[in-house]
Amino acid sequence: MAAQSWIFILLAIMVVLFVIWPVLRRRSLPAFRAHVAEDERLQTNVEVFKEHMRELGASLAEGRVTQDEYALLKLEHERRLLDDDAGLEKSSSNNKTTPAVLVLFTTAILLVGGAFYFYTHTGSAIDVDIQKMQQAKNQQDMNDLMQGREPDRERSRELITALEQRLAQRPDNTQYWFMLARSAMETNDFSRAVTAYRSILELDASSGMVMAELAQALFLQNNNRINPEIAALAGSALTIEPENTTALGLAGIDAYERAAYSEAVGFWQRAVDGLGPQSPGRKALEGGIERARQEAAKSGQAVAARDGAPATTDAPVVTGPTLEVSVEVADKVDAAKDLTVFVYARAWQGAKIPLAIQRVSLASLPAKITLNESMSMAPTATLSQAFSQSTPIELVARISQDGSAISRAGDWQGSIGPIDLADIPGDLRIVIDQKLDE
């Protein structure tokens, strides 16, 4: 039993005693006083009876009363003494425990027992136990990893059992569904993980992270193959969270399987940019990028060079709309020359996923940067679509402090917009001169 349960029991007992004690005290003090008074009254009655007997005996000896009168008067005094004694016993019985007191004690016991049952079954005792179980599991898993051992997945299974029992009582708890999904993924129980992720989206359909993780669970369940549902979930996740690395990885796989190698490079490169240098998935993504570049070269697809220089390929010129923008850095910008600069076009309003993005080094600026159809990040967000729908766009150039495509406080940025694609200015120019606060 959790320590919180014992604390609850002690508090409940204290509350009951707080209520009962004044009642017991109120009853015990008068009872004690009445008992003392009764003893005194009984002693007085006995003394009075004895005095009457002495007087009556003297009267008989002196001849003032006959023998028959003596007997009759003695009987009368004895009867009065007995009547007084009976009255005292009746008064004493009124001060003893009554059925009402028994009802009070029974109610108190039921109150404590019922409150404890309610607390343990509908209160937070189970939640506290689950939290402790999760904390202990995480600590033990960490110890295993530090010792070079694979964590014992039986701990995950025990947590899964506890979570499912609790969710049967509280099916609207999204936190428990998420913990269940993650634990199921640890045990390679992809079917259970898919069910849990779907339950979360039924409660909250706006989480890009959950969409991406559901897509990943479906991908693993489908023997590492993309299907339309997985591709759609990854695309929806990127609409909400454009830099979600899980969704970017899946979108890149989808593009690669469709032989859209330039798109695959774009997705995977963004995923690499969002991962730390020591991330375990970084090398796999970089290997995928290299294979996609090779396949793109074979099929004649243009792919942006790693340093942001114009694409090098013998393929025909990329078809579709092209934007050229001059990018320069203001004198007040204090940044190392080896930092990365992201130049991209995005919709002026709505989803902020880049329609086309180019990555260059700060040392190469000022320069004229070309954005074209091959640099789109998703098949549902391209320059062609923006041009066909006459969607106003914004052009952004941002110096990244850590090489990540995700903006952070301390980055320097410049932007222009809104730009009407039906009437594009002849000279598009961005000056990087604003420091981001958040």
Automatic annotation (TrEMBL):
PROSITE patterns: TPR (PS50005). Gene3D superfamilies: Tetratricopeptide repeat domain (1.25.40.10). One of its GO terms (cellular component) is cell envelope. InterPro entries: C-type_cytochrome_biogenesis, Cyt_c_biogenesis_CcmI, Ig_CycH, TPR-like_helical_dom_sf, TPR_CcmH_CycH, TPR_rpt. It comes from the Bacteria. GO terms for biological process: cytochrome complex assembly. It is found in: Cell envelope. This is C-type cytochrome biogenesis protein CcmI. Keywords: Cytochrome c-type biogenesis, Membrane, Repeat, TPR repeat, Transmembrane, Transmembrane helix. The chain crosses the membrane at residues 6-24, 100-119. It holds the Pfam family TPR_CcmH_CycH. Its main location: other. Residues 323-433 form the Cytochrome c-type biogenesis protein H Ig-like domain. Residues 147-280 form the Cytochrome c-type biogenesis protein H TPR domain. TPR repeats lie at residues 174-207.
